[in-house]
Amino acid sequence: MNWLEIAVILMVGASFGSFASLLIWRLPRELPWVSEHSHCTACAHSLGVKDLFPVFSWAFSGGKCRYCAAPVSWRYPALEVFTAVLFLGIFYQFGITLEAGCLSLLSVGFLVMFLVDLEHYILPDEMQWAVFVLGGALNYIRGFAWTDMLGGALLGLFVGAGLQNGYRYLKKRDGMGTGDVKLLAVAGFLLGVSSFPVYLISAGLLGVVTAIIWRLLGRGAVFPFGPALVLSLWWLLFFSNDSTQLISLLSKYSMQ
Ligand SMILES: [Zn+2]
Predict the structure, then answer these.
(1) If you write DSSP's letter for every residue of 170-201 in order, what string do you get?
(2) Is 30 exposed, middle or buried (0-12, 13-18, 19+ CB in 10 A)?
(3) Closest Cα partner for 121 from 214, 236, 21?
(4) What is the distance, to the nearest Å, from the Cα of residue 251 to the centroid of all Cα atoms in its chain?
């Protein structure tokens, strides 16, 4: 990649980071997420072009709103920088290809789901649909068989509904949200039948880690399962080849 390409990718990535912030704020509050103008959450003043430039607007205004001087969270520029670097990493790894474009947009969706569920215990339907469509496009580019995708979606739905009802039956209370069940179906659609068992294991392990961290932070016994589901789907989509190699390696050793 040359310098111009790197600069463009960083700028596009930062802009999507800023779009992710907007979604993270608006989706759980059920605000319209495209039509409405961006405005300061403290004084409601509409934001102009000068206020919407990723990272630089925040840095030049000293982390304050230009109209009411209310502090603007460091999370905005942090997310913009993170997304910019993430995009650069993806395009570096996969080249300037449609596959890299799909993976970058999917990553924005995953980031939004991860952070919204962590804070609000919600996996917004809009993001489920976005990830479903983008994942379908990615699988099409990768030449994935649609029968495997459909089978995976049904398997995910079946396993998700089973876990939800099983938990309810055993514990007499809800343990898994409907958003989690939908995400399992979406994950099955993206990964296919063959990778789904690995996905379940890795999501389950990450779920246990989340539960432990949640207790250590003193946030109670009810923890969001979405971040674990999102994170394992994310890494499996990136390293799908590696994970199939891992499975064949493991099965080879277990046969011996
Ligand atoms: Zn303001």
Answers:
(1) HHSS--S-HHHHHHHHHHHHHHHHHHHHHHHH
(2) exposed
(3) 214
(4) 30
Report how far residue 25's alpha carbon sits from residue 117's, in angstroms, rounded to the nearest whole number: 12
Rounded Cα distance between 212 and 223, Å, is 9
- DSSP characters over 120-161: HS---HHHHHHHHHHHHHHHHHTT--HHHHHHHHHHHHHHHH
* Segment holding 55, helix H or strand E: none
User: How sure is the predictor about 34, in pLDDT bands with cuts at 50, 70 and 90?
Assistant: low
Using one digit for the tens of pLDDT, what is the confidence trace for 120-156? 999 999 999 999 999 999 999 999 999 999 999 999 9
* 226 Cα to the center of ligand 1, angstroms: 32
Q: What is the pTM of this model?
A: 0.89
Helix axes 75-94, 98-120, angle to 10 degrees: 150
Cα of 101 vs centre of ligand 1, distance in Å, is 34
Cα(126)–Cα(23) distance, integer angstroms: 10
How far, rounded to the nearest angstrom, does the alpha carbon of residue 79 sit from its chain's CA centroid?
13
> What average pLDDT does range 48-64 have in this prediction?
86
Ligand 1 centre distance from Cα of residue 180 (Å):
36
Calpha distance 51→71 (Å, rounded):
13
pLDDT of residue 256: 60
Overall residue count recorded for the chain in this entry: 256
How far does residue 52's CA lie from ligand 1's centre (Å)?
13
Tell me how far the alpha carbon of residue 49 lies from the centroid of ligand 1, in angstroms. 15
